[in-house]
Every structure is written in structure tokens, then in C-alpha cells.
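Note to self: the last two entries modelled the partners one at a time, which told us nothing about the interface. This time every component goes in together.
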Amino acid sequence: MPELPEVETIRRLVERHLVGRRIIGVDLRLPKLMRDSPCPDLSVIAGQTIAAARRQAKVLVLDLSNGWSLLVHFKLSGQLAIERPDGSRDVAGHPVPDPTGPFPHKATHLELRFDDGTIVWYSDIRQFSWLRLMPTGDVEAALTAFGFGPEALDEAVVLWALKAVAPRRRIPIKTVLLDQTVIAGLGNIYADEALFAAGIHPGTPANEVSRPRLAKLARSIPWALEQGLAQGGAKIVNNKARPIDGFPAVHGRQGEPCFTCGTTVEKIRVGARGTYFCPTCQKPRLKKHV
DNA sequence: TGCGTTGTTTCACC
DNA sequence: CGGTGAAACAACGC
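The predicted structure of the combined assembly is written out below.
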């Protein structure tokens, strides 16, 4: 489930391996991925060079040399594979299908060939992701239209945003974290992990999270994202976590012992989302009624 | 085979 | 009118 760390990992790979390279072949086998795209025909990017790779929230923006840009939202299961002329391969995004397996495959919907022999495969088993091709000059307005809040990697700004919003809302604190207009970049995995690291029950009404807990949460959010970045993205395969050095600690670990206290990790629903937490480390602490 | 899956939008309701 | 929660939607695997 590509969230900020997974998309940023992809961005860095593109920057390292594709920027400055010229696209010589475009094969979009699932044209409907160009949902609401100002230019519906992706083949027109053939001949262009990738000039820059940037990201806001979970949206990847690839600027092309002719003044057009390709926007990508990976949604649940988008995945990008880059195979260099020597056969070495980098894959980021959703870890299914197996990144080490053969490409292209049934879920590979786009193939890009580059002038140096590099090949890019874009895959998506759920087909929920989207691509948009638009003039670079329109990108800023398009991103603004999403109404994204500040990037979740910046602790100070995150704390400011949480202080501004949480006391005025009674919805679960996890639901606040998933609202991209409050803080941009968290999805289901990192919201669960940040709440675990902060010791907050995910169902706690936002206006009942104390100031000190809010401050701890503001620290935990960038921390959780950095853990994911360090791993090149969290590895959750078929809803089962494959933790590295204790991360993820709770997401995808239903029925398994908490790494901190040994209590069995539970799965509940919060805001209609599958939510994992440790009942001991994340005890509900409601404000006393007066 | 119907349910679960997430990011995002939409909608009914109080 | 705005906060809220639920439903809808995208489509597939198990």
C-alpha cells in the first residue's frame, strides 16, 4: 500500500536511474489508468527526457523535457520496477506480485523503454491507481486542488497541524491521521505504527488526546515514516507483515506477540479501516467526565 | 463466491 | 451549514 515512504522510495529511484534518460518506447496496455487525464494519450511522451522527479503527499510527479508532466497515484497496489541494461533491478511500491519474479506479467500495465536500454515496468494488481498527463504549468494548480495539508515528515509542522485540528474533532485520532487535508502522506500502515509508537489507542476521540500525547504523536509520525524510508517501504504481503528490526510493530501482526510487551496484537475496525494495535501498549485513556 | 482490501469522494443525516 | 459516519468506487485474490 504505497504511502509516503513507498512513493518517496520510488521517487528517489527515478531520480537516480531515469532522470536525464530519454524515453524511446511507451506501451500502455491498460489505457483506463489515464483517469481524468487532461491528455488521455500517454504515447505522446515518447522521445521526451525525464527532467525531474518530485512528490507531494502520495502523488509522484515526473517532469518531462517538453513542458509536460506525468502524475502517478499508486493507490493500493501500484508498483514500479526499473531494470537496467546489466539486468540489475530495483522495485518499489506494493510488494505484490513478487518483485524478484519475471517481468512483464499479467498485472504489468505499462512498459517504458529508455535510450540506454533501461526498462520500466508499472504494475498494479488492483488497477485502482491512476496516471495523468498535463502541462507542467498546470501541475501546481492540480496539486493545490487536492487540498493536501503539510508533509507528515516535518515534526514541527505536524504538531502545529494536530494542535489546530484534534481538539475540535471527536472522530477517532486515527481517522484524523488518515485525513490528507490535515497531514499529507500517512496511510493505514503508518497511521497504525505512529499511534503504536506514541502509545495511543487508535479509537481515541481526537479531542481526548492530551497535549503531551499529541506532542509524542507528532514525534512518532516522522519517526514511523523514516523507518519505512530506511527499509525502502514497508513489507506487507497479503495483509501479513514481514517486520525488519521490529518494524512494522503492529500493522499486519494480528495474533502475534507485541515486540514490546508480548501481548497479542489485535485487529479492530476504526473508521471502517482494518486497524492493528497492542491492547497493553495502547490502552484507551479517556478523559474523566466531570 | 462473497468478502476483504485502501485512498478518495460522495452522500445522507442530525 | 458543518461535522460525522457510512457507503460507494476502483477490481482482484483467496
